[in-house]
DNA sequence: GGTCGCATACTGCCTTGTGCAGTATCTCTG
DNA sequence: CAGAGATACTGCACAAGGCAGTATGCGACC
């Protein structure tokens, strides 16, 4: 017997609820939307629907494009029910991974130029992502116009977070430029920066 | 021959550069600091130093507390060099995981109450994390006062992102409260929300 | 008509990482 | 002197990532 469905199972199930998909289409759709807050390798998205079928949450239909085999997956009533139940459960804690921040944190193992380069790369990344989000927001017609309001809600958060990162990279750059070295911030007022985080509204 | 060190390897190496640690101490230190932008299970942190030793980047010293075995790891010169070289490499892309956002995105599989509950949980989580960050910022003396400026830089970003999430949860709540159902936003102006993301400074 | 490049549609395999259970010993407190 | 919590790990099963490899379909261009 298969173990409990994972969040990734439910994410795929959520898409299957909208319409049937082949795994290839599923993978592309995930890259457009879910990838922002639930990134999963394409490889994984080819395995996941099989598990859903094994659990009775989806069905698989074999088809052909000429000689090429093609599996289309669709949600079942049991899948729809499981999805609705899952919405009630408390979500797992958020998690952020940023190798760039690890490099900033350990910047004192290198020099100021290395730190500036890392900050520049983080800035470029944030700018690119913000541009990609703006493009998504500008699209007049997405594939599911009846779900546009939910997309807008999610896009808004993604955008605000990306904006925060971009603004930070620029601020960090100006701050670091006043340092004497990665180990000596000179007259930089560390305490003042920290204080802004303690004297804030909740 | 072991494969290339991972980001996690370098993260542990970065801490070993500061002083020698036992894995237990290492795990606790990671939870305090790195966990915010490079979260790794405690289990992994027990394996990682062994690989560093195998690669010649660290050394292990067996010790005893009474009868209890205890391994203390320390960085080598090769480790210090590898760490400095690693700082030059472009960092991997950031990645954010939020099961809560997946639930918001697929909220149309459930009702408004479920969506409101999920938003409430996301808000509580963000508030807790923000409070934890404020506490870290308020600490007069951390274990490495000479690295306080780097900690402040990282803390600032973490704080700004958390703030963005908290503000969003509250905004989202007010918006959702005007909806008729999860599938019908009523007079809510989806287009206006999306427009704010396209008409912005870069 | 042919072939080149890109899209479609997967599978295998190895490594990384998570979560949980289990096994000790040490130290402090009442 | 018992019990609770901290210290210090290991084993195992499963989730997930990354890369290479194997096809076929289809449209563009010569």
TrEMBL record, chains A, B:
It comes from the Bacteria. Residues 99-175 form the Transcription regulator PadR C-terminal domain. Residues 12-84 form the Transcription regulator PadR N-terminal domain. InterPro entries: Tscrpt_reg_PadR_C, Tscrpt_reg_PadR_N, WH-like_DNA-bd_sf, WH_DNA-bd_sf. Gene3D superfamilies: Winged helix-like DNA-binding domain superfamily/Winged helix DNA-binding domain. PANTHER family: NEGATIVE TRANSCRIPTION REGULATOR PADR, TRANSCRIPTIONAL REGULATOR YQJI. This is PadR family transcriptional regulator.
